[in-house]
């Protein structure tokens, strides 16, 4: 599949970086001839809540808990439960033209396909990667990617609009201590039970690998046949024209 790698897309703040994802979605919906847009970046410390969570009684306290741990609370465009990420993680956005029906098996098929693609990438890096949930994982999902069936490594979420689909994934690559601490505090306020021992990272499952190796492997897997690269400010100018 042809793809455009979106570069220089960070530095807009936690909420602004999520807005970039929505702008990419809008651009593809309006320009169906666009190849897949692929964005891989290291985010600022963020706790991304779902809109459903924002309606819960414990949400204000959860927002305060995130902020007190140095993480900016935001509402993310896709579904799921609260996810924490920072510079030790990678966020991957995949935006495709969407010409199928909304919801149902079509959405399930996309989750399964992308989950298997991430598992393939991690296996090539030496991880015993599998597709499926880990009991007690944060933001549980049928097509989470785990290691050894014991720790979650990749969580995915998606948003579909008329004409385009955004699939977003968060991947802890290195240190997890700060991420676990903030999720413990946030999920306590939201009254969500989870097992912090299920929170894993890629480098803890490999030997001789670096964060750069992980990034390069993901870019090759999802944008390896790319027709080129586009800097985000160029894409933004096209959106505004």
From TrEMBL:
Q: Which UniProt keywords apply?
A: Ligase
Q: List, alphabetically, the Pfam families matched.
A: LplA-B_cat (PF21948)
- Which residue ranges does the record assign to the BPL/LPL catalytic domain? 32-230
Q: Which Gene3D superfamilies match?
A: Bira Bifunctional Protein, Domain 2
Q: Which GO terms describe its molecular function?
A: ligase activity
| Protein name, UniProt field | Lipoate--protein ligase family protein
């Amino acid at each position: 599949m042809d793809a455009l790698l979106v570069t220089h897309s960070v530095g807009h703040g936690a909420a602004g970086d999520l807005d970039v994802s929505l702008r990419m979605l809008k651009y593809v919906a309006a320009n169906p001839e666009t190849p897949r847009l692929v964005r891989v970046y290291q985010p600022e410390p963020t706790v991304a809540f779902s809109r459903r969570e924002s309606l819960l009684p414990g949400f204000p306290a959860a927002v305060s808990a995130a902020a007190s741990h140095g993480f900016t609370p935001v509402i993310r465009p896709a579904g799921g439960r609260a996810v924490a990420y920072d510079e030790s993680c990678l966020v991957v956005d995949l935006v495709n033209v969407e010409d199928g029906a909304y919801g149902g098996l079509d959405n399930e098929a996309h989750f399964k396909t992308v989950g298997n693609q991430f598992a393939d990438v991690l296996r090539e890096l030496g991880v015993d990667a599998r597709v499926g949930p880990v009991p007690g994982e944060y933001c549980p999902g049928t097509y989470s990617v785990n290691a050894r069936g014991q720790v979650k490594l990749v969580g995915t979420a998606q948003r579909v609009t008329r004409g385009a689909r955004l699939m977003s994934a968060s991947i802890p690559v290195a240190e997890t201590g700060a991420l676990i601490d903030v999720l413990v505090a946030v999920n306590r306020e939201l009254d969500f039970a989870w097992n912090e021992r299920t929170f894993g990272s890629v480098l803890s499952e490999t030997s001789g690998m670096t964060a750069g190796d992980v990034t390069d492997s993901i870019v090759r897997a999802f944008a390896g046949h790319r027709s080129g690269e586009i800097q985000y400010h160029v894409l933004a100018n096209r959106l505004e024209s």
